[in-house]
Each structure stands twice: as C-alpha cells, then as structure tokens.
C-alpha cells in the first residue's frame, strides 16, 4: 500500500515538473507548435515517398524545396491581392461614411435653414502624414462624386456654399478621430504579421533540421529509458507520443479541410458575384482550423460585404453557398477528424471551444479539441493510440 502511494506521488511529481517546464516555455508555444506540425506532416510525407525513393534525406530536400516554391507562389499570387482588396474595402468604408455625413448634413440644412458661413479651418499644419493623405483623398472623392450630378455652375456654387464647408468640417473631424485608430490597428497587424512570419521561418528551419537527423534523435531519446531517468521516461514518453499522434492527425486532416473549404468558398463567392474573394477565402482558410465555430467567424465578414453589395438577395445567396460548403465539410470532410479520430459531438466541441477561448485565448481554440480528445481517449478511457 505504501509502495502504491509512493509510486503515485512520484508520478504526480513528474507531471508537475513537466507542466512547470511548459509554463516557463509558454512564450515559445508558437514556435514549438509550428515546428511540431511541420515535422509531423513532413515525416508523414517522407514515409509516403519511401516506397519510391529510398534516399531519405534526398526525399526531405525535395519535399522542402516544393514546399518553399508553394509558399513563394502563394505569396506572390494571393497576398498582394488580399492587401489590395483590404485597401479597397477601407476606401469604400470611408466613402460610405462621407456619404452618410453628406446626407445627414443635407437633412439638417433643409430643416433648420441655417446660413452660417463656416470655414473648414481644422489645424492642417498639425496633421500627421496619414491624416493629410486621407483628407486629400476623401475631399477628392467627394468632388468626384458630386460633380457628375450637377452642372458646372451649380457645382461651383455648391463648393462656395455653407453646406459644402460644413461637409468639409465633418470630413476633417472624421479624419482626425478615425485615422489614428486605423493607423495604430494597421501597425499592430503588421507587427503581428512580422512576428508570425519570423516564427514560421524559424519553425521551418527547425523542422528541417529535426527531420534531417530524426533517426539519431530517436535513438538519443530512447537512451533515457535506461539509468536514473528510466522512470521519468516510462511515465512521460508514451503519453507524449500518444498526444503527438492525436494532435498531428487532427491538424493534418484539418489542413486538408481548410484547403477544400477555401477553394469551395472562393468558387461559391465567384458564382454569386461577391467581391474580395481572395480576402474572404483567406479568412475561411484560417478559420477552418477552428472546428464548428470557424464557420460562424468566417461568415460574418462575408455577410457584411454581401449585404452592402446586394442587400437581402445577396445575403440569401451567401447563405446557400455557406450551407453547401458546410454540408460538404460535415458529411464528407469532418469524418476524417470527428468520426475517425476525435469521435466527439459538435455540441461538445463547441462547449470545449468556448471554455478554451475563455481560459487560454487563441491557443484554446486551436488546441482545445485535440487536448480534450486525448484526455478522453487516452487518460480517462485508457485506449491505445494506433
């Protein structure tokens, strides 16, 4: 009895130390996670290629060269278009704000019959570069929009009117309020993008090094099964291997689902005539890594653009496209994960995601389902991972 208690205490201490190490390495989770995923997928491809080419390291070089070419091709074809569409959406949003301000000011003018001469004298000399550019572009858009609607004399008279001056003041106020917020958001987004790119590049290099010398690394790890670390190895190694298998299978299959979802969504949006296809498809691709909840998250921006482009009719067409894609995902693709690997009900998945996001943020969304599946199958049920 005392020996059993001692063994349990020893096992508990081992896991407490391991969890403590993971907490200390929490800031490196992104690199560790990306390295693991790339290593797992690369090792799977190596096993598939081993049947045709026996030279393992040559196969590895071929895989990574093709992968780098795919990344370069994707970056050159998709990323510039995504930035272009994002910029156009920002311009359209700003133009819509100007139009609404013009309509509101026109209504106010007609109701109150005010004839106060107001000069648009916002302190231009204190403008930032971004504010000056946006103010100039917005005023140019206002003139370009109004000029075709009026004859030259009426347009010239309107530009000298109180209403036009009030519109310019409204534009200046909007620029002064919104541009710093937008600029800070863009800078923050670019900083995050640079960090993600650095992490991905580092993970790519690390995964290549690991796969290059994987047989020797496995032998080195197995050497801990003897000597003073024997008990630690016996307790941790099987669990880590099982968890790695569950996590690797999940994201391997989820990557395929994300690609298919993005392609089907792009085709559907093209058929119904929705703009910004590259941007929306990219959002769908990344949201596809979030089971169940990703469908809702990726549908929101598409719904906003669809309503703006065609109202209720376009929303109805969008819903049809989403239902078709979701049906394909549910009955043809999701069995790869929830049917064969996870065997979890979508409601349970949704609850796990909500709790995971609340406790751990993005990591809870990404890892909540695989971790829960591992605990359910391996820890609670005691099943063996194939």
Please describe what this structure looks like:
- With 386 residues, the chain is an all-alpha fold.
- The chain has a domain of 158 residues.
- Helix content is 83%, strand content 0%.
- It is built from 14 helices and no strands.
- Helix 2 packs across helix 3 and helix 4 packs across helix 10.
- The longest helix is centred in the middle third of the chain and has 51 residues.
Order of helices and strands: HHHHHHHHHHHHHH
Number of strands: 0
Tell me the strand percentage band: under 5%
Estimate the helix proportion, in percent. over 70%
Q: Quickly count the helices.
A: 14
Radius of gyration computed on alpha carbons: 28 Å
User: What structural class do you assign from the helix and strand content?
Assistant: mainly alpha
> What about the largest sheet?
none
Poorly predicted regions are: 113-125
Distance between the termini: 33 Å
Q: Can you tell me the overall shape? A: elongated
Estimate the mean pLDDT confidence.
76
Summarize the structure.
By secondary structure, the chain is mostly helical.
Secondary-structure map with pairings?
Elements: H1 2-24, H2 29-49, H3 56-77, H4 79-112, H5 129-146, H6 152-159, H7 162-212, H8 214-222, H9 230-271, H10 277-287, H11 293-333, H12 338-342, H13 346-360, H14 362-380
Helix pairs in contact: 2-3, 2-7, 2-9, 4-7, 4-10, 5-7, 9-10, 9-11, 9-14, 10-11, 13-14
